[in-house]
Amino acid sequence: MTVKINTKFIQEFVETNELAALEDFVAASHKKIHDKTGAGAEYLGWLDWPSKMEEAELSRLEEAAEKVKSDTDVLIVIGIGGSYLGTKAVQDLLLPAFGAGGTEVIFAGHNISGRYLEELLSHIEGKKVALNVISKSGTTTEPAIAFRILRKWMVDAYGEEAANRIIVTTDEKEGALRKAADKAGYTSFVIPGDIGGRYSVLTSVGLLPLAVAGVDIRSLLEGAALAESTLANPALMENDAYLYAAYRQILNSRGYSVEVMASFEPAMAGINEWWKQLFGESEGKQGKGVFPASVIYSTDLHSMGQYLQDGRRMLFETMVSFTEDQNQTEIPFDEEDGDGLNYLVEKSLHEVNQTAMEATALAHAEGGVPILSLEVPKLDAQHAGYLLYFFMKACAMSAYLSGVNPFDQPGVEQYKQNMFELLGKPGYEK
Ligand SMILES: O=P(O)(O)OC[C@H]1O[C@](O)(CO)[C@@H](O)[C@@H]1O
Predict the structure, then answer these.
(1) Could you say which protein family the record assigns here (predicted)?
(2) Ligand 1 atom closest to Cα of 205?
(3) Which residue, judged by its Cα, is nearest atom 13 of ligand 1?
(4) Which residues of the chain have pLDDT under 70?
């Protein structure tokens, strides 16, 4: 049960000796990660988190989730960036696309749209609602605004009972949210100080709402723990996360500066968004970094396919596929065969989809797009946990290989500063 790189389509673009040339650099960066000596090392808490998360905390989290499930129709997760993308990603990946049932988990505070919030408020009217407000810093404007509005809604709806329906996930000691939780007596969970937002999906940040949504969070952690041990191997050629990181850097140095994450599984859409934040915020600094983009095929072959095949050549693609057929849907035989599809009747949709992937990879490689292929055996909670950890480990390695700190995001501050000035926040006047 691992995520493997298939090098079939990349061999013609990257030679083995180019990889070999990176071996020492990878070994040195591995040391930086594991000995915690690189830039931002104080944020490496995620590295052994899957194996070290305490049973008591996990049980407390499951209890809180059970309580929410027992008396709530809709849980609203309020958060932005790493405080919600991981939950959305795993939820999209593992839960049925239609009518998942149980407590519905929806999101707020990841935008400032009045329309979105009004629609959300009308959706929850008459329903039993709980809030999980998540912010590591406790000071991010978008979730703070949403929390203020939704907290008022909760107090109007439930009076003093509202406090029993609000769960706070934030820093152990600092920030406005921690103060609010302590003052109002909300149930609260801690985001470990040494784990940054975009690396936090496997902490209470993701686990609580995912447990409410019906995801098997123990299997998720199990998969991540397996990745933790498997990907602790320092040898580049034996560590697929490091291979993925090394290929990215080699391609980037050759001018392939945009990575398109492509999957033939629509459930991957959320993972794509989570991955974009992970790599974008980790690597996009000092004028460096591969720009992370994403598509879902075959849908997007009919919109972006032309560009991928034939547009400006600065792209490489990473195709994620699930290799096992877990569905068995076949195309039925039709007497008249008016649509000419009878030649497919012996094949499952999985086979047709895999063939579409192969055909696309062949075409794009021929069109000059280097293709990395990541193979995941199955689409389930364990493999999802493995995949999440795989990307986090690869991201840390990739950022160190490109010479940047994987764990800070100084550039995000600029827009906030401007917004505060323009809105006239006290202390920020020009
Ligand atoms: O959890 P917080 O502190 O509200 O931060 C939310 C997001 O905002 C950022 O700090 C900047 O966009 C991200 O790194 C983070 O995931």
Answers:
(1) Belongs to the GPI family.
(2) 1
(3) 81
(4) none
